[in-house]
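Incident log, structure service

09:12 report received: a user says their structure output differs between two submissions of the same chain.
09:20 pulled the input from the user's history:
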Amino acid sequence: MAEPPRHSGIAAATLYNDTSRALVLALKYARRIGLAPMMARMIAPRLPVLEGQWLFVPVPLHRWRIMKRGFNQSALLAGELARMTGQRLVVDGLVRPKATPPLGGLNRKARARMLSGAIAPYPRRLDVLKGAKVVLVDDVMTSGATTNACIIALRKAGVVQVRIACFARVMDEALNTSRNQQEISS
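09:34 re-ran on a clean worker, output below:
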């Protein structure tokens, strides 16, 4: 209640667990890009009906990370979802001008600090973003710091509504349950 969400909802295919983690890691680091269509097919049924025109915008990677990895996994998912829904993909709606280290292991405040100023609307897409409704696509949603940074940038560009679509979502309750089950079985 103290911090209401800046978005209009989250569509996640699954919770972040051992299985979804393995799929995400295979996509990102083992370069198994053939997983992207299957993962997008799992996200699609979770999306609400998108009335009117929507833009699918992926969470951006810094250019060094794209050069190192060879692709943006969120862009692959966004492209598949846009195709499946008949909506427009704007792969460069957001840019990441500031390189950030991997955010794994950081708490919510530390993630937000790292992302401050790291994400911005691409100036050449401002005309497309102004007044638009956007589905922001990412592979995993953890603390929400990355999506919040993206939403702030999208709102600065004049986007009127943002929904989030991700393959896996980290839920504190699921993590606690998973940890408790591991402790019980140890």
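09:41 both user submissions now match this output. Likely a transient worker issue. Closing.
09:42 reviewer note: The radius of gyration is 16 Å. Confidence is low (pLDDT under 50) at residues 173-186.
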